[in-house]
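name: query_chain
kind: protein
chains: 1
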Amino acid sequence: IYVVFFYFISSEERHLRANDREYNLSFMYANNAIKTSKYNVFTFLPLNLFEQFQRLANAYFVFLLILQLIPQISSLSWFTTVVPLLLVLSITLAKDLSDDITRHKNDKHVNNRKVEVLINGELKSEKWMNVQVGDIVKLENNEFVTADLLLLSSSEPLNLIYIETAELDGLVTETLIKYTISILYISGEVRCEPPNNRLDKFTGTLTVRGETFALDNERILLRGCTLRNTEWCFGLVVFGGPDTKLMQNSGKSIFKRTSIDHLMNFLVMFIFGFLAFLCTILSIGNGIWEYKEGNSFITFLPRADGANASLSAFLTFWSYVIILNTVVPISLYVSVEILRLGNSYFIDWDCKMYHVKSNTPAQARTTTLNEELGQIKYIFSDKTGTLTQNIMTFNRCSINGKSYGKSSKKKIDFSWNSLADPKFCFHDHKLVEAVKSGSPEVRAFFRLLALCHTVMAEEKTEGELFYQAQSPDEGALVTAARNFGFVFRSRTPETISLVEMGVPTTYELLAVLDFNNVRKRMSVIVRNPEGKLTLYCKGADTIIFERLHPLSSKLMEVTTEHLNEYAGEGLRTLALAYKDLDEDKFEEWKERHHEASTSLEDREAKLDAIYEEIEKDLLLLGASAVEDKLQDGVPQTIEQLAKADIKIWVLTGDKQETAENIGYSCNMLREEMKEIFIVASNTAEEVREELVNARKKMSPESGDEPPIEKSRFLGKKSQVVEDEKVNGEYGLVINGHSLAFALQKDMQLELLRTACMCQAVICCRVTPLQKAQVVELVKKHKKAVTLAIGDGANDVSMIKTAHIGVGISGQEGMQAVLSSDFSFAQFRYLQRLLLVHGRWSYLRMCKFLRYFFYKNFTFTFVHFWYAFFCGFSAQTVYDEWFITLYNLIYAALPVIGLSLFDQDVNDRWSFQYPQLYAPGQLNQYFSKMAFARILLHSCYSSLILFFVPWAAMCDTVRDDGKDIADYQSFALLAQTCLLIVVSVQLGLDTYYWTAVSQFFLWGSLSVYFAVTFTMYSNGMYLIFTSSFPFIGTARNSLNQPNIWLTIFLTTILCILPVVAKRFLFIQLKPTINDKVVARLQHTPRKVPRRRISTRRSGYAFSHARGYGDLVTSGRFLRIPVKTRSALFPHTDTTLYLYKKNM
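structure:
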């Protein structure tokens, strides 16, 4: 599901005073009451019906009902239309009523929560809905946050505030504000931005006694959070109720629509036109018949005054609109939603997608996209945390031109360091010797790692440290410094306390230059105990190297060689540098920094410019390298998806070498590929040239202009770039700099053509925006369904852009999961989601649509043929009660059973033959052509169903000589033949029989005969004479052998061509499904796993904004360490490779 973000910034800022209700009420700010319900007692029925009648099928049936109220037109009783319409409306009414009652209860529960509010100097208990902007509220431990608050003080030392933000992003964060409640209560005023939906930004200023302080997002406690591990805290209400950021993000939901949805909309419109065409033909036939034959019947069928053939034809048109209404599928959309809901539950209940160690089941977060999981052509994946475990270990480092980490297998004994982490492992004893010998470069290296971070330390017992890190990278680096003698012990907003080789040392923290996606680095400015000012910086090597002093040029060359070596081992790298600062220049810079930080306009841009001034002429210290291992099952999953002809693109922020190495490790890039193209140019012309050269190598006959086809894929007009033939398999690796040029409007089609020719594409050093742009490019110009999968906040834009978004609940919080359509814990579950659930859902939906249209068109066409034998008089061929119950009972449950439980092969065979996935990508099971074949099949079946019973009953008598060639007997025979034929057809379409399927099929037939004998009985006729005129027809007809012989003959003639066609196609032109079913008895053989190649790799800086501002302001991050569960092999989905040609 997409969430629509209405981001509106007015020109007026918000102005409020602390604890001054009279002043704040003058601005008429919204109070803290919320309303998420849609209806009330008076508006529910009219508003809900109004919404339902906006659906074309519902409105059409109301129109039919109006027509049936006109005596000159009505050819059916009112209940034939009212009963189906009421059932559909009632189901939707009940669902919407239940949902809205739940919303009312939730609103009432939330609005009536109690909170303590400071009023006239006293704390009073108030309901949430009565809290006003500007109130000061007191929260206690484990209480929900009442509104968007500016935090004031807390019970914790140093005023720490620990909050859980799980309802917002799944993370646990902490924050702190130093201002005391007494100061703010007297004279505090806040000016800030108006309400908006940006969870990650807040701009404002606080004025206290004439002094102005900057307010940013880390100073705000958002509604939806929970206070944890804090006895109490006070906060100032800034936004209340509907103005809170949580409610601003609760916009209307717009459902993603599948390709089948858009096709169904087109077909429904076609059906309306087709209905008008049939009715026109029949009305013309009536006019001709009235003109030529009508006068012969005037004696016993007198015409009304003024009636003639033309008027009769006009009225007949509308009469047949009523009779042939079954061709319009009123229950189609309701049935589709039931099927999707059922298939979603199958995903939720799948134990084989349940991760035991993290207690995380798979979840279908939307129920509208199940069948599209069976049509995926392109997968866009993040790397860190998605393909890898995102659990980092410190493995290698380069310090002052010397590389460490590759030595003996003997583990280093850190017993000399009483504060060392016993879980930390390192094997190069030379590094320990260098630290102990007092090497200034080595000690400066680890001092930087111990100072330049936003990690929080918690010491529950003496010497037992626990680090809470923003990212696994930071935790690994600080732990490495700890074990080598530079122990980060604690911090305050102004200081950082270390233990350096056993000596406690405190540094004054003067500034944190925080990380963001553009900077890709972070710095701290500290003053050591001797009063020396130093800037320590760490970041992506390309960013750091650009800012080095010329004196570091030789060291940079050696370090670059080491970085390449580490990348070859698949490690993530980071460059480290420092700079000594002059006191006077720093004070001048600090003033400009304060001005920028308190600016209400373009604050981030101004701060970046200020940071850029001081982060230059750095001196290189070295580089670190950490390892991030692949998740279990990733190579096998990617290999299986590739066999299903699904192309996988990895969009990552890592270095090119890292991305390339991971590509080989997870089987995306393979030795047997003909060539892997690397695009890493610095100008647009060079990028274009490399893309064109790559395309020409893959397809020499490829023209300069892209093969474009105008299409209406997924209901939208677009220019589709057709696939081009390629000999062999190729790969493409492109870096972020080149990608920025390639995504320009004049070059993006060239990028698309070249990339789509490759089996695997890796885009490295990309930003979150570029990820979304790449997905949008493929989505817009390829006639294919896309899927994006990721685990972090930097993947949200990509997940929302793709047709289907999948979130992995991992180390980076729940942002990706909350924005996704489907979620689970491990990447390897993706193959089961697509190859099993996706394929089954697509197969079931297509079978449902084919059978649904077949049974309805066959039912309707029999009416059409009967019109030629009743003088086009709009008489029905069936009993009216059969017409009413046909789609509601007799033919409804069997098709639902088919659509919920059917499967062509089981899940193991779906894994063993991933090629079974291909028909969904090509829309082979249901398309416009398939719909046309259904029409022809229905036409043939209706001819048999009408003319065989007609011929069999013409001039026929019973065993006792009585005539049974009457209308009622013929109607009973025709409808019985119809129901049996469509039931047998459903049985032929069912691959997988279950007890439920059997019960629905045989139960429906039993109900039909039970209802028929009941309604045609003497008792029903005596009670409701006009409603049940078919008295005795069932018992007089169905006891005759020739009637049952006719039913058998009709069934054989209808089914025989279907069986013959399937037999011939299996023999002459078998589908992939036919081949697999034929080979189910073969014993597959295992192919030995190929050795996984190792290629160069590197490190990408985190995409999440850092917490430097939080640290310097005294607000801290506290994230409980979540241990990854041990990965386990695919015992349940062992994949065999069957190498015979399909």
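note: Residues 829-867 form the longest helix (39 residues).
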